[in-house]
UniProtKB/TrEMBL annotation:
Primary enzyme class: lyase
Domain of life: Bacteria
The protein's annotated pathway: Carbohydrate degradation; 2-deoxy-D-ribose 1-phosphate degradation; D-glyceraldehyde 3-phosphate and acetaldehyde from 2-deoxy-alpha-D-ribose 1-phosphate: step 2/2
Family to which this protein belongs: Belongs to the DeoC/FbaB aldolase family. DeoC type 2 subfamily.
Coiled-coil annotated spans: none
Protein name: Deoxyribose-phosphate aldolase
Length: 353
């Protein structure tokens, strides 16, 4: 990815964030899991178009770089098991269906508490510190049931908001929806940007709206969904990523899962390069969340490899990396069972709830 102009970085930079405490490492035949760090808020900056207006993205080079992740960058045996457990810890276990009920959310919360079957956890040597998912993501009206079902678990509840998935309701209504979700107990808010503002290059309007949404979040972390499948070009993806971070987004997220094209590795690479550039300008660490279309353990490994190679070890933790998924968890559990037993079970043996 080539940039013709990056503007002038901030005069003083904060040191790179230290790796959080949480780790999953192979030790003989067992795996060890320890505690989890916290993600400092991104305060944002004034809108600085000079940081991104002259950006150029080499599409073929981006695609070639992304294509390397699923091939030669592989991990095997106990190392693969460790990476898959790490992926589980980074999943935002999600239900965003029109027929969601408190009962469904309760069952999903039970799976979030124990995402990997007990016998597999014991065989992996994790019984003393069983892994949990990164968060449970639901619609605003399902936040209260999710909070109740997850009480005492330490698992945060994330809520989509702002007219998800289109993001085209009037701004006062979008802000009211954020406040409602926060009042119900949501600790993270996944907002949707107005894609028209990207397509028309109206960066002031995009910045002002996201800034207002961040203020409405209060103490809740804000994850900005760019709906990259609607943005047409990787240059637009890069620019929208930068504006969202300048406006104070704590995470940038690829997709709602409702677009025709959702998370892809080239799009993710573009967003991660923007995230890295923003960190160089400001010294702030911003999180990343791919979502939509990620269904297999192989997908999880590819995105973990992308984060590790592009951003380093700190971005393999749930405070800086999340995967928006539901069906992926079942396939990861299936692969972990194969590691433990040497046999593959039917995917239907690994229901989500």
């Amino acid at each position: 990815m080539d940039k013709t102009d990056k503007g002038t970085p901030a005069a003083s930079k904060k040191p790179a964030p230290a790796a959080p405490a949480l780790s999953v490492v192979p030790t003989g035949s067992a795996l060890i899991v320890s505690g989890q760090g916290a993600h400092a808020r991104n305060p944002g900056t004034a809108l600085k178009p000079e940081w991104f207006e002259a950006i150029e993205v080499n599409l073929s080079a981006t695609e070639r770089r992304a294509a390397t992740l699923g091939g030669r960058r592989t991990v095997k045996k106990e190392y693969q098991a460790a990476w898959l457990v790490k992926a589980v810890q980074c999943i935002d276990l999600t239900t965003l269906a029109g027929d969601d009920t408190p009962g469904r959310v309760h069952r999903l919360a039970l799976k979030a508490r124990r995402p990997i079957r007990e016998d597999i956890v014991e065989a992996l040597g994790l019984a003393d510190a069983p892994p949990t998912v990164g968060a449970v993501c639901v619609y605003p009206t399902m936040v209260a049931p999710a909070v109740k079902a997850l009480a005492g678990s330490g698992i945060p509840v994330a809520s989509v908001a702002t007219g998800f998935p289109a993001g085209l309701t009037p701004l006062p209504q979008r802000l009211a929806e954020i406040r409602y979700a926060v009042d119900q107990g949501a600790q993270e808010i996944d907002i949707v940007i107005n894609r028209a503002q990207v397509l028309t290059q109206d960066w002031n309007a995009l910045y002002d709206e996201i800034r207002a949404m961040r203020e409405a979040c209060g103490e809740a972390h804000l994850k900005a969904i760019l709906a990259t499948g609607d943005l047409k070009t990787l240059r637009n993806v890069y620019k929208a990523s930068m504006v969202a971070m300048m406006a104070g987004s704590d995470f940038i997220k690829t997709s709602t899962g409702k677009e025709d094209v959702n998370a892809t590795l080239p799009v993710s690479l573009t967003m991660i390069r923007a995230l890295r550039d923003y960190g160089e300008f400001t010294g702030e660490a911003v999180g990343f969340k791919p979502a939509g279309g990620l269904r297999t353990a192989k997908d999880a490994l590819a995105w973990l490899a992308l984060m590790k190679e592009e951003l380093g070890r700190p971005w393999l933790e749930p405070n800086l990396f999340r995967i928006g998924a539901s069906s992926m968890l079942a396939d990861i559990e299936r692969q972990l069972e194969h590691f433990v037993t040497g046999r593959y079970s039917a995917l239907t043996h690994h229901a989500l709830a």
